[in-house]
Design goal:
- The protein is an alpha/beta fold and 355 residues long.
- It folds into two domains: 3-63 and 160-354, QueA-like; 67-145, QueA-like (Thrombin, subunit H, Beta Barrel).
- Helix content is 21%, strand content 27%.
- It has helices spanning 46-49, 138-145, 186-194, 233-244, 253-263, 303-312, 314-326, 347-354; strands at 27-31, 38-42, 55-59, 61-63, 67-72, 78-88, 91-97, 107-110, 115-122, 128-134, 171-174, 198-204, 227-231, 249-252, 273-277, 292-296, 337-340.
- The strands form three sheets. A nine-stranded mixed beta sheet has the order 2-1-17-16-14-3-12-13-15, with helices on one face.
- Strand 9 (115-122) and strand 10 (128-134) form a beta hairpin.
- Helix 6 (303-312) packs across helix 7.
- The longest helix has 13 residues, at 314-326.
- The chain is globular.
Length: 355
């Protein structure tokens, strides 16, 4: 299967530049993974798609304000650091610009000298390893000096950092948000609980590899990036119980999906685990754990649209994307959402009334 098989036309004006004021009022396109049937709703209608006894699994990673603007200590030349992940205490792997100035031994300063960094090494893909020095707590310094690392297709400055966080974000470490979760509000999650849906959490720290283009012509030759994850025992137990009772596991986002499918590669039951995953899910790969998916609309020819196509079929997904473009849905990180799963009893009548 070729990378070009996952291309679709997207007008630039449909790329959302800012989040809606009310998170849950985003539009929701529902897609039946078995029939390809499409319906148009709002995200707060997601409650109707969930059954009592289902498990809704959320990624509770927290995005770091990981973009730093500073200067080279000896020359004053401007520099930009983007933190990727922590290697050890105060030592981070970063992307640096302009790269030619960021050599081993070079020192940089940020803010009014609150934060300094020395380059230790250059590693794969030209990333740098740096050691930071500062007074106080690193996360607090970063919160004061850093900016949210929104994707390059968002050109408008984000005024409120919290809008690039889910309302349940807890474990700091991501270089990007698990954007499918941005639509939830505390009130909507409570409604879901009251319906009898069980909510579980895991952590996957999203890396910038998420946004890397697939350069291989044959998708099977693409090398996937690795991301750190934690699957707690209570979430593994919830998934096992849900499956044993014949209910559905509904994953919120491709990030939660990657953790669950990594943990379930050898079948059920799942067990508590921590590690790095480079799982690449594309059409032809089987899903062992998830039954349905809540996700956003993804970039053409990306690994994310390939994952979604593995669940619902490439033709169904591209048809749904074509309809979303025609209906002027908002795309990508701050855009609208999709629910991919099989229809539940009574929904068809509701679709006919609301269409």
């Amino acid at each position: 299967m070729k990378t070009s098989d996952f291309f679709y036309e997207l007008p630039q004006e449909l790329i959302a530049q800012e989040p809606l004021e009310d998170r849950s009022s985003s539009r929701l396109l529902t897609l039946s993974k078995s029939t390809g049937e499409i319906a148009h709703r709002h995200f707060y209608d997601i409650v109707d798609e969930l059954n009592p006894g289902d498990a809704l699994i959320l990624n509770d990673t927290k995005v770091l304000p990981a973009r730093l603007y500073g200067a080279k200590k000896d020359t004053g030349g401007a520099a930009e650091f983007l933190l990727l992940h922590k290697k050890s205490l105060d030592v981070w792997e970063i992307i640096a610009r302009p790269g030619r100035k960021v050599r081993p031994g070079a020192k940089f300063v940020f803010g009014n000298g609150e934060l300094e960094a020395e380059v230790i090494d250059i590693v794969n893909d030209g990333n740098r390893i740096v050691k930071f020095t500062y007074d106080g707590v690193f996360e607090e310094v970063l919160d004061r000096l850093g900016e949210m690392p929104v994707p390059p297709y968002i050109t408008k400055k984000l005024e409120d950092k919290n809008r690039y966080q889910t309302v349940y974000a807890k474990n700091p470490g991501s270089a990007a948000a698990p954007t499918a979760g941005l639509h939830f509000t505390p009130e909507l999650l409570e409604k879901i609980r009251q319906k009898g849906v069980n909510i579980g959490y895991l952590t996957l720290h999203v890396g910038l590899g998420t946004f890397r283009p697939v350069k291989a012509e044959d998708i099977a030759e693409h090398k996937m990036h690795s991301e750190f994850y934690i699957l707690p025992s209570e979430t593994a137990d919830l998934v096992n119980k849900t499956k044993a009772e014949g209910k559905r596991v509904v994953s919120v986002g491709t990030t939660a999906t990657r953790v669950l499918e990594t943990a379930g590669m050898n079948g059920l039951p799942l067990h508590e685990q921590t590690g790095w995953t480079d799982i690449f899910i594309y059409p032809g790969k089987e899903f062992h754990v998830i039954d349905a998916l809540i996700t956003n609309f993804h970039l053409p020819e990306s690994t994310l649209i390939m994952l979604v196509s593995a669940l619902a079929g490439r033709e169904n997904v591209l048809n749904a994307y074509k309809e979303a473009v025609n209906e002027k849905y908002r795309f990508f990180s701050f855009g609208d959402a999709m629910y991919i799963g099989d229809r539940i009893s009574g929904d068809k009548k509701k679709d006919e009334k609301t269409s």
